[in-house]
Amino acid sequence: MAGSGPTKTVSVKNGTQHIQSVRDGRSVYLNGKLVHDVSEHPAYRNAVASAGALYDYQSAPDNLERMTFDIGGGRRVNRCWQLPRSYDDLVQRRKALVEWAEVSCGFLGRSPDHVASSMSGMMMGIEVLDRHDEKRGHAFREWFDYVRNNDMFLTYVINNVQGDRSRAFGDQGKGAEDMVARIVDQDSSGITIRGAKLFATSAIMANEIFVSSGQPLKPGEEHLAFSCALPMATKGINLLSRKSFEAHAVSEYDNPLSFRFDENDALVFFDDVKVPWERVFVLRDTDMCRAQLHDTPAHVYQNYQAQIRLSAKLRFLVGLARGIARTIGTINFPPVVDVLGKLASQAALIEGMVLGMEAGGAMRGEYFLPNKHLLYAAQVQSQEMYPVIISTIRELAGGALMMLPSSAADFDNPELARMISLTQVSPVMSGEDRVKLLKLTWDAVGSEFASRHLQYEMFYAGAQFVTRSHSYRTYDWDRATAMATRITDGYTLADSRVSAGQAA
Fold first, then answer.
1. What is the number of helices (H) and of strands (E) in the chain?
2. In what order do the strands lie in the sheet with 33-35?
3. Which of 233, 386, 470, 487 has its CA 20 to 30 A from that of 333?
4. H-helix or E-strand spanning residue 118
């Protein structure tokens, strides 16, 4: 074509590159055995492929401009690494995160944009780390540039093992010294950590892990007070996987969600892991473990991403609810329309609060932040709402979820297939498609995979009293009480007596 020049080469991470990156010799243990390659193992391979699909989505030519941004040198990375400097930047970033969430219908709770959002928020408040120690602040800057420039999939472990809740984390008694990851040595090259952390969601398919404490620590627990980052294949990092729902998925037809989106959770045991100084960001400071998340925008951005993802997940679930009503022929029943209308309003509530977080946002230095209180208010609502929505969908489906063929193999038997076609009747689809939709619904609301998601949505941000306390501390109480104060300051008891006397 006349006037056309050479095509500009753009470098952006794709799915093949990500899948190759997890073939690094990491130590994952399942059912008493070491897993040698998570990208091939039947307990994890489809989840790893689903992570890869996210990077394939962002690198598709039609999606590239929306999903990624230019960091220079012909390199583009996902917009989750973008540090918004305006309302418009924040909205553009959110739209990219919504598209990624829709790829997994919101069922990848710890998708690559989650911890990236948290670390981006920490970078927006880097002065907090600088005040702690300029060397630690410099280390974080260097690491952040490295993981961002390589568009890495990050996970984190910031929860301590529960243990004996009547005792402090650092005082679990004799024999439990290594229960919680702690600093056991420190020299000119770095620190050595030993002990465990929870919950390494998505660690089996991540590139690096951020390690710290998001729970309050007290004076005397300085050996527990650190933050650092490590490649997943670092010697001494052991991932003790929970049961794999993917491994127990009968087929894609029978368990379509757990078949591909079981991101897994793991306990991480650090067995004398050496952390070089360039990977240490907080050192022996109990308050800094709090400050790195809450005095920077890290906590806000990580939970803002979570609400964006949840809004996509709720939209999926509400769509399933309507699909059930159509499938079983109750779509025009007034009570069912009433229920669907309420479900739609609940899903829209979270989506609307996300938009409100943006509209009510403000500048913090050179960066634009979503509204803190609306974020925490949305968390309070969603923690209460999610179990109710799941229960409502189960009620809409009723016995339909209990009348399903044992597996897709039943259709291979002609006589059984005939019986299925006679009994799985729908006014809008074939018996095979009816079973398909209902099995999808069961995997979303009733299976062991669904039960894990129920627990996750209720507790990933902390217990309800934790999120409610965030809501309490970020609400504008002065403004809320000012109206009543203005009224009560306008009169006295003596004024009231005079008024009463005049009226008499």
1. 18, 14
2. 33-35, 27-30, 237-241, 266-276, 190-197, 182-187
3. 386
4. helix 112-124
Share of the chain above pLDDT 90, in %: 90
Residue reference for tokens 């489906």: 397
Q: Which residues pair with residue 282 across a beta bridge?
A: 227
* Residue 318, both tokens: 């509400």
pLDDT tens by residue, 83-108: 999 999 999 999 999 999 999 999 99
Whole-angstrom distance, CA of residue 484 vs CA of residue 57:
53
Which residues have C-beta within 8 Å of that of residue 340, sequence separation ≥ 6?
A: 318, 321, 322, 325
Q: Closest Cα to residue 27, out of 40, 39, 18, 37?
A: 37
One-letter amino acid for residue 327 of the chain: T
Instruction: Give pLDDT, residue 5.
Output: 45
What is the CB neighbour count within 10 angstroms for residue 84?
25
- Residue 233: pLDDT over 80: yes
In the numeric block, the tokens 């390494």 are attached to: 200
Closest CA relative to residue 466, chosen from 375, 372, 380: 380
Structure tokens at 37: 């390659």
Asked whether the beta carbons of 207 and 261 are under 8 A apart, the reply is no
User: 28: helix, coil or strand?
Assistant: strand
Cis peptide before 245 (omega within 30 of 0): no
CA 255 – CA 193 distance, rounded (Å)? 39
Q: Where are the alpha helices (DSSP H) in 173-297?
A: 258-261, 286-294
Look at the domain 15-294 and name its fold. Butyryl-CoA Dehydrogenase, subunit A; domain 2 (2.40.110)
User: Is CATH 3.40.640.10 what the domain over 298-481 is classified as, yes or no?
Assistant: no
Band (497; pLDDT cuts 50, 70, 90): confident
Q: Look at the alpha carbons of 356, 358, 360, 361 in this order and tell me if their dihedral is positive or negative.
A: positive
Q: What is the pLDDT of residue 210?
A: 98
Residue 1 pLDDT level (bands cut at 50, 70, 90): very low
110 contacts 100 by C-beta, under 8 angstroms: no
More confident call, 9 vs 142: 142
Structure tokens at 227: 């933050």
- The structural domains of the chain, with segments of one domain joined by +, span 15-294, 298-481
Residues for the chain: how many in total? 504
Dihedral over Cα of 366, 372, 374, 380: its sign: positive
Q: Report the C-alpha gap between 229 and 208 in whole angstroms.
A: 7
Q: How far apart are CA 479 and CA 322, in angstroms?
A: 41
